[in-house]
Write a structure and sequence with these properties.
This protein is mainly alpha-helical and 432 residues long. The chain contains 21 helices and no strands.
Length: 432
């Protein structure tokens, strides 16, 4: 019964989405069908109470603030300042300025919280500079596509906030858990670029410009504003001085100050950043309340409990379940953007994961990395469209460029499965 109904719901959801219906109304429609036709529950009162209860969750207050912080920084000259600071330090490595894409996206991710903002902010400066210096275009685009996804993982991540609300786990702990995996992926990307550059030096031509140690130190001062903001936001959370919501408030104030001192803040940029944050926040919140109603409806039908029993009956190992979920998320990533994918699967997947004894904090990081992979899978890979708009290249060429980094993220998942301590150890340390 549960399996058949779940399959029916899945295909019904795909049908609704294929009609062009927004994700949130599609989720609410599915919940309504479940309650109306498969339970005796009062649909109207449950719909009203659930939508209200899900919309004022305190944990969600951090969401619009972090989004606004990213929108403000997107409209500053932060990308050019970061390039000036990183280029002298990274140019001597094999692969040269290609590493600016990776490290720059890692730094930007720590203040933006969004994959699209991270990719666009770094790309609008690095792509012209790399092209001017005759770097291989495919590797330039691919490294930016892959590294841009770090905006979903490295805290303060909007995706981790959404997952924390759905799974009812500590957002602060998720932020702590996301740091080392983010650094690990940066290291994997940089290693790949160095190997490619060593094997084929023409991909990253040596530059005539050399920098002294003093020049590198002086250039690093361009990174001080953004590093200072990262320290304020994340340091306040990790040190236990602020909740994620309070840290987000600090981040917004810091971003406004950076924009003011860089002379990027005016009435137009302020209004544009605010409206961008409002639109994105409303979209995500609408999806979340729709998912909350669907989760309630599924609870009334007993589907999650029955699926958990199925996991027990088939005696699926944790490894087998994770492999199946990885394939599922990769498939869904071809048709849905990250937030929608995570939200609509949560009500079914989370009970199965809990039954299998998988740590929800660890699973949150696992899920976000898989969702990251969805950002560079066609036809709905959001980062692919961002790069298409910036480069003017065909979407197939951009997809081909991003493919190696897709497999590198798959490698990072394998590493996390083999060594879960990369996620859990920092959390346990901070708790103590």
């Amino acid at each position: 019964m549960a399996t058949g109904l779940s399959i029916l719901l899945f295909f019904l959801l795909l049908f609704l989405l294929s009609l062009g219906i927004w994700v949130a109304p599609a989720l609410i429609t599915l919940g309504y069908i479940l309650l109306e036709f498969f339970t005796p529950a009062p649909v109207g009162s449950l719909l009203a109470s659930t939508l209200w209860d899900a919309s004022w969750n305190w944990a969600l207050t951090a969401l619009p603030l972090f989004i606004w912080m990213g929108e403000i920084l997107f409209r500053t000259r932060l990308s050019s300042e970061m390039f000036k600071g990183l280029a002298p330090m990274l140019s001597s490595l094999p692969g040269g300025l290609l590493h600016v894409n990776v490290v720059g996206c890692g730094i930007m991710a720590a203040v933006a919280g969004s994959s699209a903002v991270t990719c666009a902010t770094i790309g609008r400066m690095s792509i012209p500079e790399l092209k001017k210096r005759n770097y291989d275009e495919t590797l330039s685009i691919g490294s930016l596509a892959g590294s841009g996804t770090l905006g979903l993982l490295i805290p303060p991540s909007i995706m981790l906030i959404v997952y924390g609300v759905l799974a009812q786990v500590s957002i602060s702990r998720l932020f702590i858990a996301g740091v080392l995996p983010g650094i690990m992926i940066i290291g994997i990307f940089m290693t790949y670029i160095m190997i490619r550059a060593k094997l084929n030096p023409s991909l990253a031509p040596k530059q005539d410009i050399t920098y002294t140690f003093l020049e590198k130190i002086l250039a690093a001062k361009n990174l001080l504003p953004v590093v200072g903001l990262i320290f304020l936001v994340l340091g306040s959370i990790y040190g236990g001085y602020a909740t994620p919501t309070e840290a987000a408030t600090i981040g917004v104030i810091g971003a406004l100050l950076l924009a003011w001192f860089s002379k990027s803040l005016n009435v137009k940029s302020f209004v544009d950043s605010l409206m961008g944050a409002v639109k994105t926040s409303c979209m995500i919140n609408f999806i979340i309340v729709g998912a909350a109603f669907l989760s309630l409806a599924m609870g009334y039908t007993g589907i999650p409990k029955q699926l958990g029993q199925i996991v027990n009956e088939f005696q699926l190992s944790q490894l087998s379940l994770l492999a199946i979920l990885t394939l599922l998320y990769i498939f869904l990533g071809c048709f849905l953007e990250g937030t929608s994918m995570m939200v609509l699967t949560a009500s079914v997947v989370l009970p199965m994961v809990q039954t299998a004894g998988i740590d929800l904090i660890w699973f949150g990081i696992f899920t976000v990395i898989v969702v990251e992979m969805a950002q560079i899978t066609p036809p709905v890979g959001f980062n692919l469209f961002v790069l298409q708009g910036m480069t003017g290249r065909d979407i197939l060429k951009i997809t081909k460029a991003a493919l190696p980094f897709f497999f590198l993220m798959l490698l990072s998942i394998i590493i996390l499965v083999a060594f879960p301590q990369i996620v859990t150890a920092p959390v346990n340390f901070m708790i103590r």
